[in-house]
Amino acid sequence: MNMLKQIIASRRYYGSSVQVAQKWVYAKAFQGEPNQHNFKLEKEDLPALKDGEFLAEAKYISVDPYMRPYMMAYPEGSLMIGGQVCKVLDSKNASFPVGASIFGQFGWRTHTVCNPSKQQSDKPYVLPDFGSLPTSLGLGVLGMPGNTAYFGLLEVCKPKKGETVVVSGAAGAVGSLVGQIAKIKGCRAVGIAGSDAKCQWLRNLGFDEAINYKTTSNIFADLKKAAPDGIDVYFDNVGGRTSEAAIKLMNLYGRIAVCGTISNYNTSIEKVTDPLRIMVFKQLKMEGFVVWRWNDRWLEGIMANLQWIQEGKLKWQETVTEGFENVPGAFMDMLKGGNTGKAVVKV
Ligand SMILES: NC(=O)c1ccc[n+]([C@@H]2O[C@H](COP(=O)([O-])OP(=O)(O)OC[C@H]3O[C@@H](n4cnc5c(N)ncnc54)[C@H](OP(=O)(O)O)[C@@H]3O)[C@@H](O)[C@H]2O)c1
Questions:
Q1: pLDDT(9) > 60
Q2: Is the CB of 247 under 6 A from ligand 1?
Q3: Protein residue whose Cα sits closest to atom 29 of ligand 1
Q4: What is the pLDDT of residues 85-110, one digit of tens each?
Protein backbone atom coordinates (compact mmCIF):
# COMPACT_ATOMS: atom_id res chain seq x y z
CA MET A 1 0.00 0.00 0.00
CA ASN A 2 2.79 2.39 0.98
CA MET A 3 4.73 1.43 -2.15
CA LEU A 4 1.65 2.17 -4.28
CA LYS A 5 1.24 5.57 -2.63
CA GLN A 6 4.89 6.34 -3.37
CA ILE A 7 4.57 5.39 -7.03
CA ILE A 8 1.46 7.57 -7.41
CA ALA A 9 3.24 10.41 -5.65
CA SER A 10 6.33 10.22 -7.81
CA ARG A 11 4.27 9.99 -11.02
CA ARG A 12 2.22 12.98 -9.99
CA TYR A 13 5.40 14.88 -9.26
CA TYR A 14 7.25 13.98 -12.41
CA GLY A 15 3.99 14.77 -14.19
CA SER A 16 5.17 18.36 -13.76
CA SER A 17 8.11 17.24 -15.99
CA VAL A 18 10.60 19.31 -14.00
CA GLN A 19 13.33 17.11 -12.61
CA VAL A 20 16.33 19.40 -12.73
CA ALA A 21 16.80 22.92 -11.39
CA GLN A 22 19.31 25.44 -12.62
CA LYS A 23 21.05 27.60 -10.04
CA TRP A 24 23.66 30.33 -9.81
CA VAL A 25 26.32 29.69 -7.21
CA TYR A 26 28.82 32.05 -5.59
CA ALA A 27 31.86 30.58 -7.34
CA LYS A 28 34.52 33.02 -6.21
CA ALA A 29 34.48 35.46 -3.27
CA PHE A 30 33.76 39.09 -4.20
CA GLN A 31 36.65 41.51 -4.29
CA GLY A 32 35.71 44.99 -5.41
CA GLU A 33 33.02 45.13 -8.06
CA PRO A 34 31.42 41.75 -8.80
CA ASN A 35 32.22 40.27 -12.21
CA GLN A 36 31.08 37.21 -14.16
CA HIS A 37 33.82 35.03 -12.57
CA ASN A 38 32.12 35.36 -9.19
CA PHE A 39 29.19 33.28 -10.46
CA LYS A 40 28.75 29.81 -11.90
CA LEU A 41 25.67 28.20 -13.42
CA GLU A 42 25.00 24.69 -12.12
CA LYS A 43 22.31 22.02 -12.32
CA GLU A 44 20.70 20.16 -9.45
CA ASP A 45 18.46 17.09 -9.48
CA LEU A 46 15.19 17.72 -7.72
CA PRO A 47 13.93 15.14 -5.22
CA ALA A 48 10.41 13.71 -5.44
CA LEU A 49 7.88 15.56 -3.30
CA LYS A 50 7.21 14.37 0.23
CA ASP A 51 4.25 15.23 2.42
CA GLY A 52 4.29 18.89 3.44
CA GLU A 53 6.42 19.94 0.45
CA PHE A 54 5.72 21.85 -2.74
CA LEU A 55 7.59 22.47 -5.98
CA ALA A 56 7.89 26.10 -7.09
CA GLU A 57 9.02 27.55 -10.40
CA ALA A 58 10.66 30.98 -10.35
CA LYS A 59 8.91 33.66 -12.41
CA TYR A 60 10.83 36.70 -11.16
CA ILE A 61 14.12 36.79 -9.27
CA SER A 62 15.17 39.78 -7.20
CA VAL A 63 18.62 41.33 -7.40
CA ASP A 64 19.36 43.52 -4.36
CA PRO A 65 22.33 45.47 -3.00
CA TYR A 66 22.40 43.48 0.28
CA MET A 67 23.52 40.39 -1.65
CA ARG A 68 26.93 42.00 -2.17
CA PRO A 69 27.86 42.31 1.56
CA TYR A 70 25.79 39.33 2.77
CA MET A 71 27.42 36.82 0.40
CA MET A 72 30.80 37.60 1.94
CA ALA A 73 29.68 35.50 4.93
CA TYR A 74 29.02 32.46 2.73
CA PRO A 75 31.63 29.95 1.51
CA GLU A 76 32.40 29.76 -2.19
CA GLY A 77 30.10 27.27 -3.89
CA SER A 78 27.02 28.44 -1.96
CA LEU A 79 23.77 29.17 -3.74
CA MET A 80 23.34 32.90 -4.38
CA ILE A 81 20.78 34.16 -1.87
CA GLY A 82 17.66 36.17 -2.65
CA GLY A 83 13.93 36.38 -2.96
CA GLN A 84 11.78 35.26 -5.84
CA VAL A 85 8.18 35.29 -6.93
CA CYS A 86 7.25 31.85 -8.13
CA LYS A 87 4.35 29.66 -9.10
CA VAL A 88 3.53 26.39 -7.34
CA LEU A 89 3.78 23.60 -9.94
CA ASP A 90 3.06 20.66 -7.67
CA SER A 91 2.14 20.40 -4.03
CA LYS A 92 1.66 18.14 -1.05
CA ASN A 93 0.98 21.10 1.18
CA ALA A 94 -2.57 22.44 1.30
CA SER A 95 -1.38 25.95 2.24
CA PHE A 96 0.60 26.20 -1.03
CA PRO A 97 -1.80 24.87 -3.68
CA VAL A 98 -0.87 24.25 -7.31
CA GLY A 99 -1.07 27.49 -9.29
CA ALA A 100 -0.55 29.82 -6.30
CA SER A 101 1.83 32.76 -6.74
CA ILE A 102 4.15 32.89 -3.79
CA PHE A 103 7.17 34.72 -2.44
CA GLY A 104 10.09 32.57 -1.32
CA GLN A 105 13.61 33.31 -0.17
CA PHE A 106 14.84 30.55 -2.49
CA GLY A 107 17.92 32.20 -4.01
CA TRP A 108 19.00 32.38 -7.64
CA ARG A 109 17.43 29.11 -8.83
CA THR A 110 14.76 28.13 -11.31
CA HIS A 111 12.97 25.46 -9.25
CA THR A 112 12.73 24.74 -5.57
CA VAL A 113 11.32 21.93 -3.47
CA CYS A 114 10.33 23.48 -0.16
CA ASN A 115 8.88 22.30 3.12
CA PRO A 116 7.91 25.54 4.92
CA SER A 117 7.64 23.87 8.32
CA LYS A 118 11.34 22.97 8.12
CA GLN A 119 12.41 26.59 7.52
CA GLN A 120 13.31 28.37 10.75
CA SER A 121 13.08 31.83 9.19
CA ASP A 122 12.34 33.40 5.81
CA LYS A 123 9.12 31.42 5.50
CA PRO A 124 7.53 31.52 2.04
CA TYR A 125 4.09 33.06 1.75
CA VAL A 126 1.27 33.15 -0.77
CA LEU A 127 1.10 36.64 -2.27
CA PRO A 128 -1.95 38.68 -1.37
CA ASP A 129 -4.30 39.54 -4.25
CA PHE A 130 -2.60 42.38 -6.16
CA GLY A 131 -5.61 42.78 -8.48
CA SER A 132 -4.43 43.66 -11.98
CA LEU A 133 -0.92 44.56 -10.82
CA PRO A 134 1.99 42.27 -11.81
CA THR A 135 3.11 39.67 -9.28
CA SER A 136 6.70 40.91 -9.74
CA LEU A 137 5.73 43.77 -7.40
CA GLY A 138 6.00 41.17 -4.63
CA LEU A 139 9.76 41.74 -4.94
CA GLY A 140 9.50 45.52 -4.88
CA VAL A 141 6.87 47.97 -3.74
CA LEU A 142 4.65 45.13 -2.46
CA GLY A 143 7.48 43.21 -0.82
CA MET A 144 10.75 43.70 1.03
CA PRO A 145 11.82 47.10 -0.44
CA GLY A 146 8.28 48.48 -0.03
CA ASN A 147 8.24 47.45 3.60
CA THR A 148 11.73 48.86 4.11
CA ALA A 149 10.49 52.27 2.95
CA TYR A 150 7.21 52.02 4.85
CA PHE A 151 8.51 50.87 8.25
CA GLY A 152 11.92 52.54 7.99
CA LEU A 153 10.41 55.96 7.32
CA LEU A 154 7.28 55.78 9.46
CA GLU A 155 8.61 53.84 12.45
CA VAL A 156 12.23 54.91 12.64
CA CYS A 157 11.95 58.52 11.42
CA LYS A 158 8.38 59.38 12.46
CA PRO A 159 8.05 62.26 9.94
CA LYS A 160 5.66 65.08 10.81
CA LYS A 161 3.66 67.24 8.41
CA GLY A 162 5.71 70.17 7.13
CA GLU A 163 9.09 68.58 7.90
CA THR A 164 11.85 68.14 5.33
CA VAL A 165 12.78 64.55 4.45
CA VAL A 166 15.96 63.87 2.48
CA VAL A 167 16.60 60.44 1.00
CA SER A 168 19.74 59.16 -0.73
CA GLY A 169 19.63 56.33 -3.27
CA ALA A 170 16.38 58.09 -4.11
CA ALA A 171 15.65 56.62 -7.54
CA GLY A 172 15.99 53.02 -6.39
CA ALA A 173 13.51 50.47 -5.10
CA VAL A 174 13.48 51.76 -1.51
CA GLY A 175 14.39 55.43 -2.00
CA SER A 176 11.73 56.22 -4.62
CA LEU A 177 9.05 55.00 -2.19
CA VAL A 178 10.52 56.82 0.83
CA GLY A 179 10.18 60.20 -0.91
CA GLN A 180 6.64 59.46 -2.07
CA ILE A 181 5.51 58.28 1.37
CA ALA A 182 7.07 61.44 2.82
CA LYS A 183 4.90 63.46 0.40
CA ILE A 184 1.81 61.43 1.39
CA LYS A 185 2.58 62.43 5.00
CA GLY A 186 2.74 66.11 4.05
CA CYS A 187 6.52 66.56 4.11
CA ARG A 188 8.94 68.26 1.75
CA ALA A 189 10.87 65.52 -0.08
CA VAL A 190 14.37 65.89 -1.44
CA GLY A 191 16.02 63.03 -3.33
CA ILE A 192 19.67 62.37 -4.15
CA ALA A 193 20.34 60.11 -7.15
CA GLY A 194 22.99 59.32 -9.75
CA SER A 195 21.74 60.78 -13.07
CA ASP A 196 19.77 63.70 -14.47
CA ALA A 197 17.18 61.30 -15.89
CA LYS A 198 16.69 59.76 -12.43
CA CYS A 199 16.37 63.23 -10.88
CA GLN A 200 13.75 64.21 -13.47
CA TRP A 201 11.83 61.01 -12.71
CA LEU A 202 11.87 61.90 -9.00
CA ARG A 203 10.43 65.33 -9.73
CA ASN A 204 7.74 63.65 -11.85
CA LEU A 205 6.92 61.46 -8.85
CA GLY A 206 6.33 64.59 -6.76
CA PHE A 207 9.70 65.06 -5.04
CA ASP A 208 10.19 68.78 -4.39
CA GLU A 209 13.88 68.71 -5.31
CA ALA A 210 16.37 66.19 -6.68
CA ILE A 211 20.16 66.38 -6.71
CA ASN A 212 22.51 64.46 -8.99
CA TYR A 213 25.35 63.47 -6.65
CA LYS A 214 27.56 62.44 -9.58
CA THR A 215 27.59 65.83 -11.30
CA THR A 216 27.32 68.25 -8.39
CA SER A 217 30.50 70.09 -7.48
CA ASN A 218 29.24 70.76 -3.95
CA ILE A 219 26.67 68.36 -2.53
CA PHE A 220 26.49 70.35 0.73
CA ALA A 221 25.63 73.62 -1.06
CA ASP A 222 23.07 71.90 -3.29
CA LEU A 223 21.43 70.20 -0.33
CA LYS A 224 21.31 73.47 1.60
CA LYS A 225 19.51 75.09 -1.32
CA ALA A 226 17.11 72.15 -1.71
CA ALA A 227 16.35 72.09 2.03
CA PRO A 228 16.33 75.80 2.98
CA ASP A 229 14.73 75.09 6.38
CA GLY A 230 17.25 72.35 7.18
CA ILE A 231 16.70 68.59 7.30
CA ASP A 232 14.41 66.98 9.85
CA VAL A 233 14.63 63.42 8.55
CA TYR A 234 17.48 61.82 6.63
CA PHE A 235 16.83 58.35 5.22
CA ASP A 236 20.28 57.07 4.33
CA ASN A 237 20.76 54.40 1.69
CA VAL A 238 24.33 55.17 0.72
CA GLY A 239 26.61 56.45 3.53
CA GLY A 240 29.92 58.23 2.78
CA ARG A 241 30.23 61.86 1.62
CA THR A 242 26.55 62.27 0.76
CA SER A 243 25.60 61.38 4.31
CA GLU A 244 28.32 63.60 5.74
CA ALA A 245 26.75 66.58 3.94
CA ALA A 246 23.19 65.67 4.98
CA ILE A 247 24.09 65.19 8.64
CA LYS A 248 25.70 68.66 8.76
CA LEU A 249 22.35 70.15 7.72
CA MET A 250 20.20 68.34 10.26
CA ASN A 251 17.80 70.37 12.41
CA LEU A 252 17.44 70.12 16.17
CA TYR A 253 15.92 66.75 17.14
CA GLY A 254 16.39 65.41 13.60
CA ARG A 255 16.08 61.69 12.90
CA ILE A 256 18.43 59.66 10.71
CA ALA A 257 17.49 56.17 9.54
CA VAL A 258 20.53 54.19 8.41
CA CYS A 259 19.04 51.78 5.90
CA GLY A 260 22.11 50.95 3.81
CA THR A 261 25.62 52.08 2.90
CA ILE A 262 25.88 51.08 -0.75
CA SER A 263 28.69 53.58 -1.42
CA ASN A 264 31.05 51.19 0.39
CA TYR A 265 29.71 47.75 -0.63
CA ASN A 266 32.33 47.40 -3.38
CA THR A 267 35.03 49.64 -1.94
CA SER A 268 36.63 50.63 1.33
CA ILE A 269 34.74 53.03 3.60
CA GLU A 270 35.18 56.72 2.75
CA LYS A 271 36.79 58.87 5.44
CA VAL A 272 34.26 61.49 6.56
CA THR A 273 33.92 63.93 9.45
CA ASP A 274 32.98 62.25 12.72
CA PRO A 275 29.27 63.16 13.12
CA LEU A 276 29.12 62.72 16.89
CA ARG A 277 29.66 66.36 17.81
CA ILE A 278 26.78 67.40 15.52
CA MET A 279 24.66 64.64 17.02
CA VAL A 280 25.19 66.04 20.50
CA PHE A 281 24.48 69.68 19.78
CA LYS A 282 21.58 69.00 17.39
CA GLN A 283 20.30 66.26 19.72
CA LEU A 284 19.90 63.88 16.78
CA LYS A 285 18.64 60.33 16.79
CA MET A 286 20.44 57.95 14.41
CA GLU A 287 19.14 54.41 14.13
CA GLY A 288 20.19 51.53 11.94
CA PHE A 289 17.52 49.01 11.06
CA VAL A 290 16.88 45.82 9.14
CA VAL A 291 13.41 45.40 7.69
CA TRP A 292 12.93 41.89 9.13
CA ARG A 293 12.35 43.68 12.47
CA TRP A 294 8.75 44.09 11.27
CA ASN A 295 8.20 40.49 10.20
CA ASP A 296 5.15 40.31 12.44
CA ARG A 297 3.62 43.31 10.58
CA TRP A 298 4.70 42.26 7.06
CA LEU A 299 1.22 42.25 5.53
CA GLU A 300 0.38 45.64 7.04
CA GLY A 301 3.15 47.31 5.03
CA ILE A 302 2.22 45.50 1.81
CA MET A 303 -1.47 46.36 2.13
CA ALA A 304 -0.76 50.02 2.97
CA ASN A 305 1.47 50.40 -0.09
CA LEU A 306 -1.09 48.53 -2.24
CA GLN A 307 -3.83 50.90 -1.11
CA TRP A 308 -1.70 53.96 -1.91
CA ILE A 309 -1.01 52.51 -5.39
CA GLN A 310 -4.72 51.95 -5.94
CA GLU A 311 -5.46 55.51 -4.81
CA GLY A 312 -2.87 56.82 -7.30
CA LYS A 313 -0.65 58.20 -4.51
CA LEU A 314 2.27 55.78 -4.87
CA LYS A 315 3.97 55.11 -8.20
CA TRP A 316 6.37 52.27 -8.91
CA GLN A 317 8.82 51.42 -11.64
CA GLU A 318 10.78 48.28 -12.42
CA THR A 319 13.90 47.65 -14.45
CA VAL A 320 13.26 44.18 -15.83
CA THR A 321 16.02 41.98 -17.26
CA GLU A 322 14.90 38.95 -19.27
CA GLY A 323 16.32 35.46 -18.78
CA PHE A 324 17.67 33.34 -15.93
CA GLU A 325 21.08 33.34 -17.61
CA ASN A 326 21.22 37.11 -17.07
CA VAL A 327 20.70 37.20 -13.28
CA PRO A 328 24.39 38.00 -12.50
CA GLY A 329 24.41 40.69 -15.20
CA ALA A 330 21.28 42.31 -13.74
CA PHE A 331 22.84 42.23 -10.27
CA MET A 332 26.08 43.85 -11.47
CA ASP A 333 24.16 46.45 -13.48
CA MET A 334 22.01 47.36 -10.45
CA LEU A 335 25.10 47.92 -8.29
CA LYS A 336 26.37 50.36 -10.94
CA GLY A 337 23.10 52.30 -10.97
CA GLY A 338 21.64 50.75 -14.13
CA ASN A 339 18.21 50.43 -12.54
CA THR A 340 15.46 52.95 -11.93
CA GLY A 341 13.01 51.65 -9.34
CA LYS A 342 13.24 47.93 -8.56
CA ALA A 343 15.67 45.68 -10.44
CA VAL A 344 14.16 42.26 -11.19
CA VAL A 345 14.85 39.39 -13.56
CA LYS A 346 12.01 37.75 -15.49
CA VAL A 347 12.94 34.10 -15.67
N1 LIG B 1 18.05 47.89 6.12
C2 LIG B 1 17.27 47.12 5.36
O3 LIG B 1 16.48 46.31 5.85
C4 LIG B 1 17.35 47.29 3.87
C5 LIG B 1 16.41 46.67 3.02
C6 LIG B 1 16.51 46.91 1.65
C7 LIG B 1 17.52 47.71 1.15
N8 LIG B 1 18.43 48.23 2.00
C9 LIG B 1 19.49 49.13 1.52
O10 LIG B 1 18.87 50.22 0.90
C11 LIG B 1 19.70 50.70 -0.15
C12 LIG B 1 18.90 50.73 -1.44
O13 LIG B 1 18.50 49.41 -1.76
P14 LIG B 1 17.51 49.14 -2.98
O15 LIG B 1 17.10 47.74 -2.91
O16 LIG B 1 16.48 50.19 -3.01
O17 LIG B 1 18.48 49.29 -4.24
P18 LIG B 1 18.36 50.33 -5.41
O19 LIG B 1 18.45 51.70 -4.82
O20 LIG B 1 17.18 50.00 -6.23
O21 LIG B 1 19.63 50.01 -6.29
C22 LIG B 1 20.89 50.37 -5.89
C23 LIG B 1 21.23 51.83 -6.31
O24 LIG B 1 22.29 52.29 -5.50
C25 LIG B 1 22.90 53.37 -6.15
N26 LIG B 1 24.36 53.34 -5.95
C27 LIG B 1 25.25 52.43 -6.40
N28 LIG B 1 26.49 52.78 -6.01
C29 LIG B 1 26.37 53.92 -5.30
C30 LIG B 1 27.31 54.79 -4.66
N31 LIG B 1 28.63 54.53 -4.64
N32 LIG B 1 26.83 55.89 -4.04
C33 LIG B 1 25.53 56.17 -4.05
N34 LIG B 1 24.58 55.40 -4.64
C35 LIG B 1 25.02 54.29 -5.27
C36 LIG B 1 22.56 53.25 -7.63
O37 LIG B 1 21.76 54.37 -8.00
P38 LIG B 1 22.42 55.77 -8.47
O39 LIG B 1 22.30 55.80 -9.95
O40 LIG B 1 21.57 56.77 -7.79
O41 LIG B 1 23.85 55.78 -8.03
C42 LIG B 1 21.74 51.97 -7.72
O43 LIG B 1 20.69 52.06 -8.65
C44 LIG B 1 20.92 49.80 -0.18
O45 LIG B 1 21.93 50.37 0.61
C46 LIG B 1 20.42 48.54 0.49
O47 LIG B 1 21.46 47.78 1.04
C48 LIG B 1 18.37 48.03 3.34
A1: no
A2: no
A3: 263
A4: 999 999 999 999 999 999 999 999 99
